[in-house]
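Form 7-S
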Amino acid sequence: MALVVFLKGVNVGGHRRFRPSVVARKLRKYGMVNVGAAGTFVVMKPFGRARLRAELLRRLPFDADIMICSAHEIISLASAEPFADVSCGLDMVRFVSVLATRPRVKPAIPFRLPPGGGWLVKVIELRGRFAIGFYRRRMRTIGALGQMEKRLGRAATTRNWNTIKQIVGILQSYGKRVEPQMKTDEHR
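Output:
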């Protein structure tokens, strides 16, 4: 089963910098594909989570929080189309925060940070270990995302919804490449 890896707080503001493409190249025997510069990877070949975490930590020049999801979790999230009936302004970004684990206590949804009309982060849904919402393009938004983590009681890393859709495209594309080969093998 394919896995999706999200690193927290890397290549942000010049801190904890590394080249994800180099790490993906070193782990290509596991079918690792790099997605962007924020430390997001798709691992196509079967691989244990603990072993994958250890391999990544060994190759990173620093310690990192690593969230690992199954392909099924990501595809289920995307197929639910959480933004289908919700509009967003031009200064807002649709996001998904991947939590290390499900929150112990679910806060009332939706919630805004900071509360009120001048919010920077608005969480509209909690789905398992995913917090789904909008953030405004402001310098202070990173602080509001940190407040969200505290409110949920779990470490989290945030990605643009477009990144999630790109991951789904990679997973679907890989499945199409594998399927014809399997059919060929059945005829032998």
